[in-house]
């Protein structure tokens, strides 16, 4: 069974998911790890046809078709994503997603938390309290429906970790005028990926805060260079 590793590709400025296998022993007697990168074969024009049909049918059916749209979209992206020659599979059924939507709606429409407060305040408070749990359930469902080489993923994150990493830390990022946001992004990614076991082994995340800052500022530098080039061409 492969150990899945998340690595940062400095040359491309992106994060890759890679499997690591133990190869045969070399001359020194030690075993070398063989790492293979993630590959995506989807095409924009091909997906556009899926996207526009999903959009139109979702509008016509007042959102009911969105469950089918989600399945078609995920199946397209998963099927065109290959790791070590094997593609991922999305196994969820549209009716499962519809039932999940209905369940979450019923939870959200519970009676007001405190009758002394207006309904709007109670709804906001309830949503704030429930959102970490809803996020965990959504991640857990999608991973349970994700298959790679006939092995499904799962998620072990809990409510407290989700509340800290997905709600409190982003507030810290905003209050720091977004200076701390790359660090917050790293914490969120580590929370999610380090709680994903595959085949009984946890996903290993080999990223650092500096790499996130490099990815963010590298993207800004690329946009600045592109803007400068366009300005020179205009003049």
Q: Would you give an account of this structure?
A:
- This protein has 235 residues and is α+β, with helices and mostly antiparallel strands.
- The protein is 54% helix and 20% strand.
- The protein contains seven helices and eleven strands.
- The chain has helices at 44-60, 66-79, 94-108, 119-144, 159-175, 181-193, 209-234; strands at 3-9, 14-25, 31-35, 38-40, 81-83, 86-90, 146-148, 151-152, 197-198, 201-202, 204-206.
- It has a five-stranded antiparallel beta sheet. Strands 3-2-1-11 form a four-stranded mixed beta sheet, with no helix packed on it. Strands 9-10 form a two-stranded antiparallel ribbon.
- Poorly predicted runs: none
Strands ordered across the widest β-sheet: 4-5-6-7-8
Radius of gyration from the alpha-carbon trace, in angstroms:
22 Å
| Intertermini distance | 58 Å
Q: Name the helicity range.
A: 40-55%
Task: Note the total helix count.
Answer: 7
**Which percent range describes the beta-strand content?**
15-25%
For the largest beta-sheet, the strand count, sense and barrel status come to: 5 strands, antiparallel
Q: Write down the overall geometry.
A: globular
Mean pLDDT value: 80
The H-and-E topology, N to C, reads as EEEEHHEEHHEEHHEEEH
- The total count of strands amounts to 11
